[in-house]
Amino acid sequence: MKPRVAVFDFTCCEGCELQILNCEEEIPQLIEALEIVNWREAMTERSDEYDIAFIDGACSREAEIDRLKTIRERARMVVPIGACACIGGVNCLKNQYPMEQVLKEVYGDAATYYDTIPARPISAVIPVDYFIPGCPIVKDEFVRVVQELLAGRVPYQPNNPVCAECKIAGNVCVFDKGLTCLGPVTRGGCKATCVTAGAVCWGCRGLIDEPNTNAERDILQQAGLSVDDIVSRFSLFNLCQEGAWQ
Ligand code: SF4
Ligand code: SF4
Ligand code: SF4
């Protein structure tokens, strides 16, 4: 029997699921190796019998905690996809404010109809088996991870900083252009795509294991950023990784 796969969305923009749908060339091959049984964004059918659950989005409501626990009980493997699910991502920015204020800001007079809790990554709620980082995820990486999971292997997880791939890409470091960048502490695997495209790394793939954040703060300060700017830079994607939601 083919492994049964489900894709679930929580608090997010669902852009990472869109990236899976964008794997147009690989989808026919994937469908031969697995059966997709539940995916709200892509199909009408729903089944609660699945082996692998991909989770898009962070947990930011009480009801999502129970839903995640149910998914964990049913799935043999749970794999968060994207910054929202893996590290909380931009959702965690709201954790800096009282939840009542957040609700009022978003829903105005209708705030009492809604509930919210500090956002957190999926791994803060249930055990996960692997994760695919990025905002959004990289298509090739998703396909590779699925192939490795189907083969029964633990997928390779890049743990080099983005800088290593930036050098391979032949980019001039943005610090030499008077800009700043989180590449030295950010998990690679994206081929430094933002720098190559003329921007900077904002840290969407999360921090590498044991990042030297003190050294990164120092070089950001030397480049002219204020303490507030540095905190803001780290916070965009990585506020929850710093444990700020606790
Ligand atoms: S990680 Fe980025 S692209 Fe993916 S769901 Fe979250 S906000 Fe959207
Ligand atoms: S531009 Fe950023 S990612 Fe590239 S080498 Fe410089 S600091 Fe590292
Ligand atoms: S360069 Fe940085 S911000 Fe851009 S995709 Fe890679 S990790 Fe994300």
Short structural summary:
Helices cover 35% and strands 9% of the residues. The protein has 246 residues and is of the alpha/beta class.
Task: Give a description of the structure.
The protein has 246 residues and is α/β, with parallel strands linked by helices. 35% of the residues lie in helices and 9% in strands. The model has no long low-confidence stretch (mean pLDDT 95). The protein has helices spanning 15-21, 27-33, 62-74, 82-87, 99-107, 139-150, 162-168, 193-196, 213-222, 227-238; strands at 4-9, 35-39, 52-56, 77-81. The longest helix has 13 residues, at 62-74. A four-stranded parallel β-sheet has the order 2-1-3-4. Bound molecules: iron/sulfur cluster (3 copies). Residues 162-163, 166, 171, 173-175, 181, 183-184, 192, 195, 201 line the site of one iron/sulfur cluster. One iron/sulfur cluster (SF4) binds next to helix 1 and helix 4.
